[in-house]
Specification:
The chain is mostly helical. Helix content is 71%, strand content 1%.
């Protein structure tokens, strides 16, 4: 059944979004259990975080651009990069209010950097029919460019207290992969695709059509990149288990940040979408879903990966993530269904 047929039904829309949210939550719960059972320890968590940041994530970025990105097919695609930047700035501004109140810049990072890709992507796949999903996923990848290019830099400045220009905090593997892909598969399109049937390209990216008498295949970059979502969610769940022991500290800060992230920010997003874009139509419903998910998504798994990679001692991130990923089972379906009524 095409989910868009029933966008006027709040209850069905809520159920579809709740099911998609629960699937993502279940993977993080597995990581939580591995740590609580003592199977996965802190050193293993850090290794998994580095694996995602240094290998699987860059492979996913390059693979997606190489196989799906066509700038001519999406006029004005670059506008979504600006929208992504605006959402990040807006979230950080809300988080800064909490940072002043609780003297902890983790709130700024938690508000400014949502799970923009690895939570939203499977949600789009579950909520949209295939044709709309392809379009929305491409726009998503453009939208998260500012996210990938600024998280490590802002984390270094706000959490590690290392102000000033440091190329390593911006030119991270995910950002370099994104920049490389934009140049090669954006500016170089369609010239670069004349090599799609070459031996090296088929090893890296597979073939989308039959080649040399064989069926379509999956390349090495996709096989590695597809590990990103489950590994990142395992790291998130494991980090929550490792850092939330016994009673949760800073309860007021955790509660305030969670409410601000999952209720206040989505309300602003809902008002923006309704007043700036009007009522949704079948033609732009996928765009509404994509943007609403960005406003109401829980904190990004990359915050945990960043902290694990640099040995940052988290105080709020694990507890806020735990509360957010539980509460989002209700809030995300609610706002997705609400914006499409």
């Amino acid at each position: 059944m095409n989910p868009l047929i029933a966008w006027d039904s709040f209850s069905l829309s809520f159920w579809l979004a709740a099911l998609a949210t629960a699937k993502v939550f279940a993977v993080g719960l597995a990581g939580f259990g591995l740590v609580r059972l003592g199977i996965l320890r802190e050193r293993g968590l850090r290794a998994l975080g580095q694996l995602v940041a240094l290998l699987t994530m860059p492979c996913l970025v390059i693979y997606r651009f190489a196989t799906s990105f066509d700038p001519a097919a999406i006029p004005g695609w670059w506008v979504f990069a600006l929208i992504g930047f605006a959402i990040t700035i807006f979230g950080m501004a809300l988080g800064k209010i909490l940072a002043w109140r609780y003297n902890n810049e983790e709130t700024t990072m938690l508000m400014g950097f949502q799970n923009a890709g690895y939570f939203v992507l499977p949600m789009l796949a579950a909520l949209l029919p295939n044709q709309e999903y392809v379009k929305a996923s491409l726009l998503l990848f453009v939208l998260v460019i500012p996210f990938n290019s600024t998280l490590w830099f802002m984390g270094s400045v706000l959490l590690l207290r290392k102000p000033g220009w440091n190329p390593s905090t911006i030119f991270t593997p995910p950002f370099v992969a994104t920049l490389f892909s934009l140049i090669v598969y954006g500016l170089g399109h369609p010239w670069i695709h004349q090599f799609d049937n070459s031996f090296i390209v088929q090893i890296l990216f597979g073939s989308r059509a039959a080649a040399f008498g064989s069926a379509a295949s999956v390349g090495a970059m996709q096989q590695i990149g597809d590990l990103t979502i489950p590994l990142a969610m395992l790291v998130l769940g494991g980090s929550i288990a490792a850092n939330v022991q016994g009673k949760i500290e800073f309860k007021r800060a955790v509660a305030a940040t969670t409410i601000m992230k999952l209720v206040i920010m989505p309300l602003f997003g809902y008002v923006f979408l309704r007043f700036a874009m009007g009522a949704p139509t079948p033609e732009n419903a996928a765009i509404y879903v994509l943007l609403m998910l960005q406003f109401c998504a829980p904190p990004g798994t990359n915050l945990t990966i960043f902290s694990q990679q640099y040995g940052y001692k988290m105080r709020l991130i694990p507890a806020v993530c735990l509360a957010s990923y539980i509460l989002c089972l209700l809030t995300v379906p609610f706002f997705v269904a609400l914006v499409l009524r």
